[in-house]
Amino acid sequence: MMEPSSTQRLAPPKVLSVQALRKQYGATVAVDGISFDVGRKEIVGLLGPNGAGKTTTLNMVLGVLEPTSGSIHIEGVNLAKRRAQALERTNFAAVYAPLPGNLTVTQNLRVFGLIYGVKGLSERIEALLTQYDLQRFRDVKCGVLSSGEQTRVALAKAMLNQPQLLLLDEPTASLDPATARDIRARIRDFAARGSSGVLWTSHNMYEVEEVCDRVLFVSRGKVLLEGDPRKLPHEHGKATLEELFITVAREPLALERI
Length: 258
Fold this sequence. Notes:
This protein is α/β, with parallel strands linked by helices and 258 residues long. It has 10 helices and 10 strands. 35% of the residues lie in helices and 25% in strands. The N and C termini lie far apart (47 Å).
């Protein structure tokens, strides 16, 4: 029997581990003690109605918000104690967070590449322009690109540092079906190729079933359900993931009676 390599022995089993995470604003509890993880080559969907705590959770994982309590480990590194080290292999994309519109595609990638300290940056930018079909837009200002083109630029930016943890907040919102399908395929390929994990929020249940290996249903800051998006509805007496989502959104307490 072969001995595991030093890299295999030292690699944390999970890309992301969240334990008892809580965020409170005065008397308002936005996230109420949730725990979950994201494994390697895994796409995990964080689902729930508006105000459920999804974006707050993402912002805590990104280090933008400080948790009231609980812990976050990225690649085994404690975010609260070693923030820079934990975040250096993390990246993020969302349609509501477009890149600066007065900079060209190449300028944006170069600025963010410098921020992330990407080695061989020029070569990395050229590779991403090719991978995301952005060569013809390289000198075009991002502000005049279509929503689909801007999303591809945002994903290219998110891949600059070859992240181990990719956070996506509604990445295909407002995109036409063909463009959304292309984006989903690119992210599935990213997760399948390496040892990275993806945490993905979406309100599109068809998309979730197609892309996610596992889903977490969040309501009122708590994880109510977890499982395979293709099996979970039937396990709780629902015909579709959309029906289950509606139950979580409207009547979370009813799940206790299912």
